[in-house]
Write a structure and sequence with these properties.
Elements (H helix, E strand, L loop, with lengths): L2 E2 L29 E2 L1 H10 L4 E6 L4 H8 L5 H10 L1 E6 L6 E3 L2 E3 L11 H7 L7 E5 L5 E6 L4 H12 L8 H13 L13 H10 L3 E7 L4 H7 L6 H10 E7 L6 E3 L2 E3 L10 H6 L9 E4 L5 E5 L5 H12 L8 H9 L2
Helix pairs in contact: 3-5, 6-8, 9-11
Length: about 350
C-alpha cells in the first residue's frame, strides 16, 4: 500500500552516512546515476533494488534547489548509487513511458500539462518537487511531497535501503531516527550490559532469560534502534529487572565459549562472528536481537527493526512465558489491543 507523508521537515544530523558509505566506494562519485522508467525493468532483472523517483518540472525553483543541494551531497550520492535505482521524472514530459508493462502518455498538447504517469503515482496531489519511493518490485510505497534537505531525506533512504517497510511504520522510524541522531541523550539510566560469561554465571545463581543485542554498526537502522529503542526508559527498566543483557559486536574478534562450543571469527571486522550466526540459526539479518531461556536455548531470533513499544511487548511476552500458550499476535491483541 502506498503511504503519503506530509510536512516531514526534520532537522536531523547526517551522521548516518558519513564514513559508512565510504566502505562501498573507492572514490566519491560526482553525481547520482539517474536512469529512465523505460530502463528500470532491465535493471531490476539484474538486481532487485528499491527505487527513488525525483518528480520535477522545468519551472519549479525548489526542484532546481534540490538538485544543487541534497542531490549534490556526496553522502546522499554514495548512498543512493549503492542502494537504489534513481529516476528523474519530468511530470510534464510528452514522452511515452512504460512502467510495470503499461504505457503512459501525456495526452494534452499544452506545454505545461501533466503526464498520466505523474497522476497515476501522485493522484490529485500534484506538487513539485515530490520524492516517490518504490519497493524492490517497483510498486509505489511512499510519496513525500516537498523539498527535502539531506537530513530530511536520510531516514526515508535508510527505511527503504534496509527493507524496513514490512516491519516498521515510516513515521515511527522517522521519530526514532530524529531521536537517535538529533535528540538529547538520556544518561540517567542505561541497560546493564554485561559480557556473556558474566551473564552465564549470574544465570546459574539467579535464573533469568538472556537478551542479546547483535550490534552491527554497518546497519544504520541498528544504530537508530540502539540510540532510540534501547535508551527508552520502559525498555531499560524491563530489561534490567527481568533479563541478563549482552551487547555483542557481530564483527568481534573474541573467542566465545557457549554450551561447550567455541565460536570464533576468522575475519574480524569483515565477517559476521560464528556466535552471531549460531544465534540467528544461520539466517543472518539486521537489526537483530535474540532471547534465550533459562536453559540457554534460543526462543526467538528477532531480525527486524523494533520500536520501544514493540520491544516492551516482546519482553513481557517472553518473561511471562506466554509464548508457551499463545502466539505473539494473540497476546498483543489481548494485552495491547493491536
Amino acid at each position: 500500500m502506498k503511504q503519503r507523508v506530509w510536512g516531514l521537515i526534520i532537522p536531523l544530523i547526517l551522521l548516518t552516512f558519513s564514513g559508512l558509505a565510504q566502505k562501498y566506494v573507492l572514490a566519491p562519485p560526482t553525481k547520482i546515476k539517474w536512469i529512465s522508467f523505460n530502463e528500470l525493468a532491465n535493471y531490476q532483472q539484474q538486481e532487485k533494488r528499491p527505487v527513488l523517483i525525483d518528480v520535477y518540472t522545468d519551472w519549479c525553483g525548489w526542484c532546481k534547489k534540490l538538485d544543487v543541494t541534497t542531490y549534490a551531497d556526496p553522502n546522499i550520492i554514495n548512498y543512493v548509487n549503492q542502494s537504489f535505482y534513481a529516476i528523474k521524472f519530468d511530470a510534464e514530459t510528452h514522452d511515452t513511458i512504460t512502467y510495470l508493462g503499461i504505457k503512459y502518455f501525456n495526452k494534452n498538447a499544452a506545454k505545461k500539462s501533466t503526464h498520466d504517469l505523474a497522476v497515476h503515482l501522485m493522484g490529485n496531489n500534484l506538487s513539485y518537487p515530490t520524492s516517490i519511493f518504490l519497493n524492490k518490485e517497483s510498486n509505489p510505497a511512499l510519496v513525500v511531497p516537498g523539498y527535502q534537505e539531506s537530513n530530511d531525506m536520510a531516514p526515508f533512504l535508510v527505511y527503504f535501503a534496509e527493507n524496513l517497510q514490512n516491519t516498521a511504520n515510516i513515521n515511527d522510524f522517522n521519530a526514532d531516527f530524529h531521536k537517535a541522531f538529533g535528540g538529547t541523550k538520556n544518561d540517567s539510566i542505561a541497560i546493564n550490559w554485561m559480557p556473556l560469561n558474566q551473564a552465564l554465571i549470574l544465570q546459574k545463581i539467579k535464573p533469568k532469560k538472556l537478551f542479546v543485542h547483535l550490534k552491527n554498526s554497518n546497519v544504520i537502522s541498528d544504530r537508530v534502534m540502539s540510540n532510540s529503542t534501547l535508551v527508552s526508559n520502559d525498555v531499560i527498566n524491563e530489561l534490567n529487572k527481568n533479563y541478563y543483557c549482552i551487547d555483542f559486536d557481530v564483527y568481534s574478534a573474541d573467542t566465545i565459549s557457549f554450551q561447550n562450543n567455541l565460536f570464533v571469527n576468522a575475519n574480524p571486522g569483515i565477517e559476521i562472528h560464528q556466535f552471531a550466526k549460531g544465534l540467528l540459526q544461520n539466517e543472518v539479518g539486521f537489526p537483530a536481537v535474540v532471547i534465550l531461556n533459562e536453559q540457554q536455548l534460543v526462543l526467538a531470533p528477532i531480525k527486524q527493526y523494533l520500536t520501544h513499544d514493540h520491544l516492551v511487548a516482546l519482553l513481557v511476552y517472553f518473561k511471562e512465558d506466554i509464548y508457551k500458550t499463545k502466539s505473539f499476535a494473540e497476546f498483543a491483541k489481548e494485552r495491547y489491543g493491536k
